[in-house]
Design a protein that fits this description.
The protein is of the alpha/beta class. The chain is built from 17 helices and 9 strands. It starts with 15 loop residues before the first helix and ends in a 5-residue tail after the last helix. The N terminus is likely disordered. The structure holds flavin mononucleotide and iron/sulfur cluster. The site of iron/sulfur cluster has 14 residues, from helix 13 and helix 15.
Length: 403
Amino acid sequence: MEKVLTTHFANERYRRMDTYRQYGGYEALKKAFAMTPEAIIDEVKKANLRGRGGAGFPAGVKWGFLPKDLSRPRVLVINADEGEPGTFKDRALLSVVPDLVFEGMTIGAWAIGATRGVVYLRGEYVYLREGLEDCLARRRAAGLLGNDILGTPGFDFDIDIRLGSGAYVCGEETALLESLEGRRGEPRNRFPYPVVRGLDQAPTIVNNVETFAWVPAILARGAAWFVGIGTPGSTGPKLLSISGDVARPGVYEFPFGVTIRELLEASGGEDAHAVVAGGACGVCVPAADFTRAISYEEVSTGGAIIVLGPDRDLLDVAENFLEFFVDESCGQCTPCRLGNPVLLEGVRSLKRGECTAERLGELQHLGRTMQDASKCGLGQTSPNFFLSLVDRFGPEILDRVPV
Ligand SMILES: Cc1cc2nc3c(=O)[nH]c(=O)nc-3n(C[C@H](O)[C@H](O)[C@H](O)COP(=O)(O)O)c2cc1C
Ligand code: SF4
């Protein structure tokens, strides 16, 4: 399988400037200014660049949803909250190739007509701030940010870094906007979507760090290059943070369509018992499914791959994830606020061998209700791991159910 670039950040095989240039740094921005904003959005649509933050919504389509009225200032926000347990690919991009990310944002700003860009940086990544500010200062000095960028009259755009404070839910885009506006980070009601009314009431695009990082390459190499990598529904390469019971944890780049087994071989996790795809809100994949591919069509993940070795008790993992969700639920809606503690107690009773088959059925029903009725993605996905465990690891779970 062609690997576009070896990016195993953990072992220093990654060369900063080579990578930046390889992915179109500087050239892409110049190329973008020779194109109309509509042509750029079209190219991103043709590439079918799907958001790398988890949900996989096509970036070009989102950009195209902005209201046509250009009199209202537009804002571009980059979601660098990266709170999902097991995800650290955005940290790698921001540490190693911040230029690439900022170049993607600048091209995005030209395409959507934004003058203001904001990086919402995970609070725990505060140590990255200085390096990011230096990178922004260098770009300003080189005329790549600020007024009349690269001598293009009237194209003014600059980027501001704002820190989160450690709440997982603030990665949800509307909670993130609340937090940026200085309020408690709680998800907003939709409608309207942020593209219509976002930060400080302005039409706002929120995209993940990795989503923006692919934009220069798409412009420099063309949408056809990007579409030629991956699968029909999941184009391009994907950064994956592989952690857990593996010999070589790190950030890896693979084309979408890579199988779980290939990931395990690359990272030294061949004896895995199960893999969690998508982090705490993801699903537990049994070894029988390691031939399945990482893609939106098959096994989907925003970037987290957590490998569970043969000695792991899967119910311990479920308990750990549910404790996390009980802590992180913002408490705004009932299915999530009350459902997560009930699921957690259910898992604990399973571990004690006290959960009856009838109770297990009720817990599954509760999990599915939370998926349907919770207000935001946190409560809609927090039951995923538990439900997948009951579905796919029946014998392991059921032998603890008293008959
Ligand atoms: C609880 C929760 C946490 C989230 N955390 C993140 C995050 O840390 N980074 C991210 O890019 N998206 C996160 N998302 C998804 C965002 O709401 C949004 O879909 C994403 O930033 C859009 O960017 P993309 O289309 O480029 O993926 C989270 C969603 C939920 C429900
Ligand atoms: S699903 Fe959870 S995190 Fe989301 S709004 Fe409801 S209580 Fe808050």
